[in-house]
Write a sequence for this structure.
C-alpha cells in the first residue's frame, strides 16, 4: 500500500506551494490537490519536481466562482459547460501528469440527471488523454446536501452503464461510513470497481483513529485484497499534521 497526501486538507496552516515540501519531509512521494486551478500549472509543476513528487489526483470541474453548485456533470442544462470545463481540466491533468480526475456530479435528482451523467461520462471517457482515469466518488448528504451521487450502489450502476475502461470508483472511508454505516463492508462490496482510495474518519472527517471507522479492519482488508494503488489521507488534522500520520505505517 502506498500513502499519499491530500494537500487541500493536510498542512492547512501553510501556503499552498509550501505544503509540497512539508509532505515530502513526512515521507510522501505522491500528493493530490482538489482544485489546483488558482495557481498556474507551471508553479505546481516546479513544486512537484523540487520535492520529487507526483500528482495523482485533481477534481473536476474547476470551482464555480459565480456562486453556483460545485460540479454539474449530472445537470441536464449544463452539458455544454461541462464539456468546456472538462477540456480545461484535461489540459491541467496533462501538464501535471495526473493519474486520476474525480468528476463531480453537482446537485441534481431524477432520471434525467442520471442519464445526463452517463452521457457526459461517456463523452469524457472518450475525450480524456491517454493514461488518465476518471473517477466517481459518492459524497454524503451531510457534507454535500443535494449532491446527486450520494450512494455507492448508484455510482456502481453509472460506472457499469458507461462501460469505459478509464472510469472507476473513488472510495473514501469517511463518505462510505457516513452513507452506509460500515466503511469496511463498502470496500469489500465494491472492490472490483475501486481505482483510488482516500481515508478519513467519521463523523467529523478527522484523522484515522479519531472516529467510527474500524481502520484496523479496513487496512487488513485492503492488504488482503491485493489493491496496489494509492491510499490518500484526506482529512482535517485538527492539529499538527505530522502527529496524525501513524496510518502511513499501519
Amino acid at each position: 500500500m502506498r500513502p499519499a497526501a491530500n494537500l487541500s486538507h493536510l498542512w492547512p496552516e501553510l501556503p499552498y506551494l509550501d505544503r509540497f515540501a512539508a509532505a515530502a519531509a513526512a515521507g510522501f512521494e505522491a500528493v493530490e490537490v482538489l482544485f489546483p486551478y488558482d495557481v498556474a500549472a507551471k508553479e505546481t509543476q516546479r513544486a512537484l519536481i523540487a520535492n520529487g513528487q507526483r500528482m495523482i489526483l485533481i477534481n473536476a470541474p474547476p470551482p464555480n466562482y459565480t456562486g453556483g453548485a460545485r460540479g454539474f456533470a449530472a445537470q441536464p442544462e449544463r452539458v455544454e459547460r461541462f464539456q468546456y470545463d472538462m477540456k480545461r481540466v484535461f489540459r491541467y491533468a496533462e501538464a501535471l501528469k495526473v493519474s486520476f480526475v474525480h468528476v463531480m456530479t453537482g446537485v441534481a435528482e431524477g432520471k434525467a440527471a442520471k442519464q445526463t451523467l452517463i452521457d457526459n461520462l461517456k463523452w469524457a471517457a472518450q475525450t480524456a488523454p491517454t493514461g488518465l482515469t476518471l473517477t466517481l466518488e459518492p459524497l454524503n448528504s451531510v457534507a454535500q446536501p443535494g449532491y446527486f451521487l450520494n450512494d455507492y450502489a448508484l455510482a456502481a450502476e453509472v460506472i457499469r452503464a458507461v462501460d469505459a475502461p478509464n472510469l472507476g470508483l473513488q472510495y473514501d472511508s469517511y463518505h462510505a461510513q457516513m452513507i452506509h454505516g460500515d466503511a469496511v463492508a463498502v470496500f469489500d462490496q465494491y472492490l472490483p470497481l475501486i481505482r483510488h482510495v482516500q481515508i478519513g474518519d467519521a463523523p467529523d472527517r478527522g484523522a484515522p483513529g479519531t472516529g467510527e471507522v474500524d481502520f484496523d479492519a479496513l487496512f487488513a482488508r485492503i492488504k488482503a485484497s491485493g489493491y496496489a494503488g494509492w491510499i490518500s489521507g484526506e482529512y482535517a488534522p485538527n492539529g499538527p499534521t505530522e502527529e496524525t500520520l501513524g496510518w502511513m505505517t499501519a
